[in-house]
Design goal:
The chain is an all-alpha fold. The chain has three domains: about 120 residues, Ankyrin repeat-containing domain (Serine Threonine Protein Phosphatase 5, Tetratricopeptide repeat, Alpha Horseshoe); about 110 residues, no CATH class; about 150 residues, no CATH class. A three-stranded mixed beta sheet has the order 2-1-3. The longest helix is centred in the middle third of the chain and has 23 residues. The radius of gyration is 26 Å and the shape is globular. The termini are far apart. The structure holds zinc ion (2 copies). One zinc ion (ZN) binds next to loops. One zinc ion binds next to helix 19. Keywords: ANK repeat, Cell projection, Cilium, Metal-binding, Repeat, Zinc, Zinc-finger. This is MYND-type domain-containing protein. One of its GO terms (molecular function) is zinc ion binding. It is found in: Cell projection, Cilium.
């Protein structure tokens, strides 16, 4: 059959386009079996059936079309839109992922010079932006499981490719979450394995920075992961309590306000050590982070997360205080200012949170009382109680200390800022570092 031309569709093909927009997968399947239907036919605008299905957000349909050989990189659309761009516009995370896994190119631009990620961002589909920016195919990693050139041995043992890939594509950059992923996999939680992994990551960074289409975002992410792996190695080698010790250091809050000081320093230090000093992304990060005094907003983690994943609003109350996972909804029943995904995360964080929990409770109550008196006179808006689930610690470790307070609600919108507003000066033993508390700034000076 002749290669598809714009607008040159058979009767069955136009029927296919119709059933695609209706979402009739069964009928589409039947039509695709007909010899008069080309899976990559083009309508008058140069749109393929896959583009139509992606734009309409029909995941099952996309799957069917891909099974029938739909070309993810067809670029005949009149404005240069690709199937991935349509997926991003639709906001369907599933379709975006599916099309990426089918080999869609990420850096293609449309007629106005926008990539799929930029298009998705433009219409506010941030989850799709995250998925696109963090995509790294398994095949790309699998290259390192085969010996290359004169190497006798592959750089990455086959058994490590799966666990490493899982970490590479994570969108939760919280260092604790990453250390836990290492810790929970016995294949990875090993000095030798981690060494191999971080060396592969370093090779990927080099590739990202040297290829024609430089990908600084991916390079920065790989650098961050490599840095964490190296930290894991040093804890495995030198510390009694191994990776638990690293998790504890990363979570430990300073006495004044519970702010995770070490974690902040750790991330700043990591950014500063990015090997390509002149990278635009690095300079952008430095400009944003350096002027912020440790303990204030934004945190290095929130800036890094936003840069790498495109996620905004890290200060929302919906992120787990311990591991950074999204959509956490269990609140500490005493202070009600921190949230966790589950009791494990709460337990993990309790050793440090217990020191400030009461203080946080008091400041929250003070804040609420102020708000109340402000509102009084204006209106008597009834105070609705929070919808979020309360964590009522059941374990004996807590029940002695945590007394769940009454049903008074706290506005989740206040949590993030409330906690950070509390942060004042760093505690005594850190004062010496106050002047030089912008470690990331030094890299710029080398220009
Ligand atoms: Zn968590
Ligand atoms: Zn608390």
């Amino acid at each position: 059959m002749a290669p598809p031309k714009k607008g040159d569709v058979t009767a069955e093909e136009s029927e296919l386009l119709k059933v695609i927009s209706e979402g009739n997968v069964q009928e589409a399947g039947r039509l695709l079996g007909s010899k008069n239907v080309r899976v990559n036919c083009l309508d008058q605008h140069g749109m393929t059936p896959l583009m139509h299905a992606a734009y309409k957000g029909k995941a099952e349909m996309c799957k069917l079309l891909l099974q029938h050989g739909a070309d993810v990189n067809c670029n005949e659309h009149e404005h240069g839109y690709t199937a991935l761009m349509f997926a991003g516009l639709s906001g369907s995370k599933e379709i975006t992922r599916m099309i990426l896994e089918a080999g869609a190119e990420i850096d293609v631009v449309n007629s106005v010079g926008r990539t799929a990620a930029q298009m998705a961002a433009f219409v506010g589909q941030h989850d799709c932006v995250t998925i696109i920016n963090n995509f790294f195919s398994r095949e790309r990693l699998d290259c390192y499981t085969k010996p290359q050139g004169l190497d006798k041995e592959a750089k990455l043992p086959v058994k490590l490719a799966g666990p490493l890939h899982k970490i590479i594509i994570t969108t939760n950059l919280h260092p604790v979450a990453i250390v836990l992923m290492v810790k929970e996999n016995p294949l990875l939680a090993d000095v030798d394995a981690l060494r191999k992994c971080y060396r592969v990551l370093d090779l990927i960074i080099e590739k990202c920075m040297k290829q024609r289409e430089i990908n600084e975002v991916l390079a920065m992410k790989m650098h961050y992961l490599s840095y964490i792996f190296q930290k894991c190695i040093s804890f495995l080698k030198e510390h009694e309590n191994k990776l638990d010790g690293l998790v504890k250091s990363l979570l430990k809050g300073r006495d004044t306000d519970g702010f995770p000081y070490y974690q902040e320093k750790f991330i700043r230090e990591c950014i500063r050590k990015f090997p390509w000093c002149e990278a635009t992304l690095l300079q952008q990060l430095v400009r944003t982070i350096a002027p912020v005094e440790i303990g204030n907003d934004p945190t290095a983690l929130s800036v890094l997360t936003q840069t790498i994943t495109g996620q905004i609003g890290f200060m929302d109350a919906e992120f787990c205080t311990a591991c950074g996972k999204k959509e956490a909804d269990k609140r500490c029943s005493i202070c009600k200012t921190v949230i966790y995904c589950n009791q494990n995360c709460q337990k993990m964080h309790w050793f440090t949170h217990k020191k400030v929990c009461k203080k946080l409770k008091e400041s929250r109550e003070k804040h609420e009382a102020k708000e109340k008196s402000k509102q009084k006179g204006k209106q008597n808006t009834s105070e609705t109680s929070v919808g979020e689930a309360e964590t009522v610690p059941e374990s004996t470790e807590y029940s002695s200390t945590i007394h769940p307070t009454s049903k008074d609600g706290s506005d989740s919108g206040d949590i993030g800022t409330g906690m950070i507003a509390e942060a004042k000066t760093p505690q005594e033993d850190l004062t010496t570092e106050k002047q030089s508390s912008h470690p990331v700034a030094t890299c710029r000076a080398e220009e």
